[in-house]
Design a protein that fits this description.
Strand order of the largest sheet: 1-2-3-4-6-5
Number of domains: 1
CATH architecture: 3-Layer(aba) Sandwich
Structural class: alpha+beta
CATH superfamily: Gcn5-related N-acetyltransferase (GNAT)
Distance between the termini: 51 Å
Radius of gyration: 18 Å
Number of strands: 6
Largest sheet: 6 strands, mixed
CATH class: Alpha Beta
Order of helices and strands: HEEEHEHEE
Shape: globular
Number of helices: 3
Helix content: 25-40%
Strand content: 25-35%
Amino acid sequence: MDILINLTDQPDAAARAAIARGLMAFNRQQTKTDDYRPLIALLSNADSEVIGGLWGYTGYGWLFVELLFVPESLRGRRLGTELLQRAEAEAMSRGCHGAWLDTFQFQARGFYERNGYRCFGELQDFPRGHARYFMRKDLGDDGAAN
């Protein structure tokens, strides 16, 4: 069988789906677990246009927050905190014991720390001159980070 390697910066969704399908099947075989579920909390305006929110998923007992965005004009109203709290509550109802995410030095590390997250890893010069932080929070009755 001839095998080709194609490098692209314009992949189609079917290619990603094929890779994910194979990896998820392997993971299921190894862990005997199949509990991946998207978890999305949207911020919408009066016209029902999505203007921000939280995008993540739960799996293996963890909530992963992939994206969280509140428009600058709405910051300071605790909407980011409410998005996190709602996602964490839903994650706990799904049996999750922890949450994790990453953020850049120029983004929201302090915000996440105020919401109980702590840094467990740092990647310097990502992008050059900045850092990327990996953060976690234990979910439970008291919501405290460990």
